[in-house]
Automatic annotation (TrEMBL):
UniProt-listed SUPFAM superfamilies: RmlC-like cupins
Classification via InterPro entries: Cupin_2, RmlC-like_jellyroll, RmlC_Cupin_sf
Domain of life: Bacteria
Domain Cupin type-2: 57-121
Lineage, broadest ranks: Bacteria, Pseudomonadati, Pseudomonadota, Alphaproteobacteria, Hyphomicrobiales
Listed GO MF terms: dioxygenase activity
Signal peptide: 1-30
Annotated protein name in UniProt: Quercetin dioxygenase-like cupin family protein
Pfam families recorded: Cupin_2 (PF07883)
Protein backbone atom coordinates (compact mmCIF):
# COMPACT_ATOMS: atom_id res chain seq x y z
CA UNK A 1 0.00 0.00 0.00
CA UNK A 2 1.33 3.45 -0.83
CA UNK A 3 1.89 5.93 1.96
CA UNK A 4 -0.85 8.22 0.60
CA UNK A 5 -3.35 5.36 0.58
CA UNK A 6 -2.35 4.36 4.12
CA UNK A 7 -2.75 7.96 5.32
CA UNK A 8 -6.18 8.18 3.67
CA UNK A 9 -7.23 4.89 5.26
CA UNK A 10 -6.12 6.08 8.72
CA UNK A 11 -7.93 9.38 8.27
CA UNK A 12 -11.10 7.58 7.22
CA UNK A 13 -10.84 5.23 10.22
CA UNK A 14 -10.35 8.16 12.64
CA UNK A 15 -13.30 10.00 11.12
CA UNK A 16 -15.51 6.90 11.48
CA UNK A 17 -14.45 6.46 15.13
CA UNK A 18 -15.12 10.12 15.87
CA UNK A 19 -18.57 9.96 14.24
CA UNK A 20 -19.41 6.79 16.19
CA UNK A 21 -18.35 8.43 19.47
CA UNK A 22 -20.75 11.31 18.83
CA UNK A 23 -23.61 8.83 18.70
CA UNK A 24 -22.89 7.73 22.29
CA UNK A 25 -23.25 11.25 23.72
CA UNK A 26 -26.84 12.38 24.34
CA UNK A 27 -27.85 15.13 21.96
CA UNK A 28 -27.93 18.74 23.08
CA UNK A 29 -31.24 19.85 24.45
CA UNK A 30 -33.13 22.68 22.82
CA UNK A 31 -32.80 26.23 24.06
CA UNK A 32 -34.95 26.56 27.17
CA UNK A 33 -37.16 29.57 27.78
CA UNK A 34 -35.58 32.49 29.55
CA UNK A 35 -32.10 32.46 28.00
CA UNK A 36 -30.95 29.19 29.60
CA UNK A 37 -29.56 26.24 27.63
CA UNK A 38 -28.68 22.86 29.14
CA UNK A 39 -26.54 20.53 27.03
CA UNK A 40 -26.22 16.92 28.17
CA UNK A 41 -22.60 15.83 27.75
CA UNK A 42 -22.40 12.35 29.27
CA UNK A 43 -24.13 9.90 31.64
CA UNK A 44 -22.52 6.76 33.11
CA UNK A 45 -23.29 4.18 35.76
CA UNK A 46 -21.00 4.23 38.79
CA UNK A 47 -19.55 1.35 40.79
CA UNK A 48 -21.84 2.38 43.67
CA UNK A 49 -25.13 0.50 43.10
CA UNK A 50 -28.04 2.68 41.99
CA UNK A 51 -25.87 5.76 41.32
CA UNK A 52 -24.80 7.48 38.11
CA UNK A 53 -22.62 10.41 37.07
CA UNK A 54 -24.10 13.01 34.73
CA UNK A 55 -22.33 15.99 33.17
CA UNK A 56 -24.22 18.95 31.76
CA UNK A 57 -23.11 22.28 30.34
CA UNK A 58 -25.40 25.13 31.40
CA UNK A 59 -25.33 28.47 29.55
CA UNK A 60 -27.17 31.43 31.09
CA UNK A 61 -27.71 34.72 29.25
CA UNK A 62 -26.84 38.02 31.01
CA UNK A 63 -29.39 38.94 33.69
CA UNK A 64 -31.19 35.58 33.48
CA UNK A 65 -31.71 33.19 36.39
CA UNK A 66 -32.35 29.50 36.88
CA UNK A 67 -34.91 29.32 39.70
CA UNK A 68 -34.86 27.29 42.89
CA UNK A 69 -34.42 23.57 42.36
CA UNK A 70 -32.93 20.39 43.84
CA UNK A 71 -31.13 17.27 42.59
CA UNK A 72 -31.33 13.66 43.85
CA UNK A 73 -27.61 13.69 44.63
CA UNK A 74 -24.58 15.93 44.82
CA UNK A 75 -23.76 18.64 42.27
CA UNK A 76 -20.22 19.79 41.58
CA UNK A 77 -20.00 23.04 39.62
CA UNK A 78 -17.07 24.45 37.65
CA UNK A 79 -17.67 27.91 36.18
CA UNK A 80 -16.38 27.98 32.60
CA UNK A 81 -17.16 31.61 31.69
CA UNK A 82 -18.81 34.74 33.03
CA UNK A 83 -20.01 35.55 36.54
CA UNK A 84 -22.73 33.60 38.32
CA UNK A 85 -24.36 34.20 41.68
CA UNK A 86 -25.49 31.07 43.51
CA UNK A 87 -28.08 31.09 46.26
CA UNK A 88 -27.68 27.86 48.21
CA UNK A 89 -30.12 27.20 51.07
CA UNK A 90 -28.48 27.91 54.42
CA UNK A 91 -25.55 29.91 52.99
CA UNK A 92 -25.01 33.54 52.04
CA UNK A 93 -25.11 34.16 48.24
CA UNK A 94 -21.82 33.29 46.50
CA UNK A 95 -20.58 35.05 43.36
CA UNK A 96 -18.28 32.89 41.23
CA UNK A 97 -16.30 33.67 38.08
CA UNK A 98 -14.58 31.50 35.49
CA UNK A 99 -12.35 28.93 37.18
CA UNK A 100 -14.27 28.90 40.48
CA UNK A 101 -15.96 25.78 41.87
CA UNK A 102 -18.93 25.03 44.11
CA UNK A 103 -20.24 21.89 45.85
CA UNK A 104 -23.97 21.52 46.50
CA UNK A 105 -25.08 18.66 48.79
CA UNK A 106 -27.84 16.26 47.73
CA UNK A 107 -31.37 17.62 48.00
CA UNK A 108 -30.26 21.18 48.82
CA UNK A 109 -32.45 23.94 47.39
CA UNK A 110 -30.41 26.32 45.23
CA UNK A 111 -30.64 28.80 42.34
CA UNK A 112 -28.22 30.54 39.97
CA UNK A 113 -28.24 33.93 38.25
CA UNK A 114 -25.94 35.46 35.66
CA UNK A 115 -24.87 38.76 37.26
CA UNK A 116 -22.40 39.62 34.50
CA UNK A 117 -22.76 41.20 31.06
CA UNK A 118 -21.78 38.15 28.96
CA UNK A 119 -23.26 34.66 28.69
CA UNK A 120 -22.09 32.63 31.68
CA UNK A 121 -21.38 28.90 31.43
CA UNK A 122 -20.88 26.16 33.98
CA UNK A 123 -19.97 22.50 33.84
CA UNK A 124 -22.29 20.72 36.27
CA UNK A 125 -21.34 17.21 37.37
CA UNK A 126 -24.01 15.29 39.24
CA UNK A 127 -23.57 12.14 41.32
CA UNK A 128 -27.19 11.09 41.58
CA UNK A 129 -29.64 8.27 42.16
CA UNK A 130 -30.55 6.49 38.94
CA UNK A 131 -34.09 6.58 37.58
CA UNK A 132 -34.98 9.82 39.36
CA UNK A 133 -35.50 13.19 37.67
CA UNK A 134 -32.16 14.98 37.48
CA UNK A 135 -33.77 18.27 38.45
CA UNK A 136 -36.88 19.14 40.46
CA UNK A 137 -38.14 22.75 40.48
CA UNK A 138 -39.15 24.17 43.87
CA UNK A 139 -42.35 26.20 44.01
Amino acid sequence: MTSKLMMATRLLARTALFAASLLTIPSAQAQQPGGIARTDLQRHDLSAPGREAVQVRVDIAPGKAFGQHTHPGEEIIYVLAGTLQYDVDGRPPATLKAGDVLFIPAGTIHAAKNVGNVTASELATYIVEKNKPLLTLVK
